[in-house]
Write a sequence for this structure.
């Protein structure tokens, strides 16, 4: 997802900013990790309450 955003929009922010925002939303419970990975960029995520039944 981050690569797609950076590839389509030249907004002057690095991938680290988007990764940090995603981490923040995971901690808040707004985003859920469906498949975890040691590489944070390889995780499968979704909005909390969607696709996961809860």
């Amino acid at each position: 997802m981050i690569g797609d955003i950076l590839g389509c929009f030249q907004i002057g922010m690095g991938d680290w900013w988007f990764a940090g925002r995603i981490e923040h939303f995971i901690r808040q419970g707004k985003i859920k990790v469906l498949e975890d990975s040691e590489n944070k960029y390889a995780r499968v995520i979704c909005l909390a309450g969607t696709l996961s039944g809860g």
Q: What stands out?
A: The two ends are 22 Å apart (CA to CA). The CA atoms of residues 5 and 11 lie 9 Å apart. The chain has a mean pLDDT of 85.
